[in-house]
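User: Can you recover a sequence for this backbone? Please restate the input before giving your answer.

Assistant: Of course. Working from this structure:
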């Protein structure tokens, strides 16, 4: 059996029903945010990756970004971190800096980014989004 490929920290950027929607969050450059993240990942020498997903669930806290730990960090017990209200350049900068440093399990989020951590949908009471 082949060993699983080592995966880097991965940013999962919600772009479903609310996240990325200019009607819900006017004044946010949603496309620019995603482009910045993709460009930073491309220049990170494989330290982190970016992908998009349909609705991740916590629509009231759009834009949502899930920072998944690398394979190495997950092996040490790290779990995905959910970030809400990622709407401006400062939030994007903080997320990119954390991913560049290794993400969950390898680096601590900044104090500012820690204030934006939210519970994943499975940890929320039923019937609430």
């Amino acid at each position: 059996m082949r060993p699983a490929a080592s995966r880097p920290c991965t940013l999962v950027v919600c772009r479903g029903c609310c996240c990325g929607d200019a009607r819900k969050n006017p004044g946010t450059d949603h496309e620019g945010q995603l482009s910045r993240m993709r460009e930073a990942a491309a220049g990170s020498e494989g330290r982190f990756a970016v992908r998009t997903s349909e609705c991740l669930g916590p629509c009231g806290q759009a834009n949502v970004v899930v920072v998944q730990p690398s394979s190495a960090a997950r092996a040490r017990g790290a779990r995905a971190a959910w970030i809400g209200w990622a709407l401006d350049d400062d939030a994007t900068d903080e997320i990119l800096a954390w991913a560049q440093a290794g993400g969950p399990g390898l680096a601590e989020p900044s104090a500012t980014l820690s204030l934006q951590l939210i519970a994943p949908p499975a940890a929320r009471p039923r019937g609430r989004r």
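That completes the design. Residues 9-123 form a domain with the Glutaredoxin fold (CATH 3.40.30).
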